[in-house]
Amino acid sequence: MEEALKEGVQIHKILVSDKLADTNSGNEILKKVNNGGYSVFALPHKLFEEVSDTQNPQGILAVLGIKNYSIEEVWDEKNFFIILDSIQDPETWEQ
């Protein structure tokens, strides 16, 4: 969420677990979000867990706009790229 705020990504809606709202770090994030005037919806933690598609949700979800880049904007022969797909919830990876 903080990265989206830093990068200026379009934020449509934000869902927050009531557990996150009760923590210091959660309060800091919510201050930044509220200062931006975004639509924020607080959910009971149990419902938040059902809405989230991760096994260990962090307590905040957002509906974001997709930032599109052309290959020319990001390609540079000096750059090294790794393309990852479906990365989520690393705590559940088998070793």
UniProtKB/TrEMBL annotation:
It holds the Pfam family SpoU_sub_bind. One of its GO terms (molecular function) is methyltransferase activity. The keyword Transferase applies. Residues 2-69 form the RNA 2-O ribose methyltransferase substrate binding domain. GO terms for biological process: methylation. InterPro entries: Ribosomal_eL30-like_sf, SpoU_subst-bd. SUPFAM superfamilies: L30e-like (SSF55315). Keywords: Methyltransferase, Transferase. Coiled coil: none annotated. The keyword Methyltransferase applies. Gene3D superfamilies: 3.30.1330.30. This is rRNA methylase. The lineage of its organism: Bacteria, Bacillati, Bacillota, Clostridia, Eubacteriales.
